Amino acid sequence: MVHAPVRLALAGPMGAGKSTVGRLLAERWGVPFLDLDSEIGDIPALFASGGEASFRRREAEVLVRAVAGHGVLALGGGTVVDPANRRRLEGWRVVVLMGAAPTLRARIGEGVGRPLAPNLEALLAARDAAHRAAGPWVDTEGRDPREVADRVEALCTSP
């Protein structure tokens, strides 16, 4: 059983299932769910107007507000790369969802609304150390979202 207040953040690359699994867990536990990317707004427009730097500034602003609450939070694929964001997540249980590049690529399809999707493989390599350091991993390969949610829940209920 997960005890309130729940403060779980799901990290990992695009296509790992953070939003899907996060919604499942929030519903299962009866707590709020927040998808950081959805709260940021029009990501392609942010990239078009100010590049990745503009997006990262907005991401940090939204994260500050998000961590003031509780529930399940689906982070953006690069959120934990920034040391300041990792500090903002102190007090939250961070679990990293991960899958192999071909699986992630298949899940994101054409990457509509994901400006960094064409660089997925390079992003995985560049962010690997940050993802490994962020928290325990759950491999999503060959698992449906409910199985992944079960594994995350087990991590959250173990000492």
What does this structure look like?
It contains 7 helices and 5 strands, in the order βαβααβαβααβα. The protein is of the alpha/beta class and 159 residues long. The protein has a single domain, classed as P-loop containing nucleotide triphosphate hydrolases (Rossmann fold, 3-Layer(aba) Sandwich). A 5-stranded parallel β-sheet has the order 2-3-1-4-5, with helices on both faces. The radius of gyration is 15 Å and the shape is globular. The mean pLDDT is 89.
Topology readout:
Elements: E1 7-11, H1 18-29, E2 33-35, H2 36-40, H3 43-66, E3 71-74, H4 83-88, E4 93-98, H5 101-108, H6 120-134, E5 137-139, H7 145-157
Parallel strand pairs: 1-3, 1-4, 2-3, 4-5
Helix pairs in contact: 1-7
Return Rg in Å. 15 Å
Q: Sheet with the most strands?
A: 5 strands, parallel
Q: In terms of structural class, how would the helical and strand content be classed?
A: alpha/beta
Q: How many strands? A: 5
Count of discrete structural domains: 1
Number of helices, counting only DSSP H or I runs of 4 residues or more = 7
Quaternary structure: single chain
User: What topology, given as strand order, has the largest sheet?
Assistant: 2-3-1-4-5
Quick overview:
With 159 residues, the chain is an alpha/beta fold. It is built from seven helices and five strands, in the order βαβααβαβααβα.
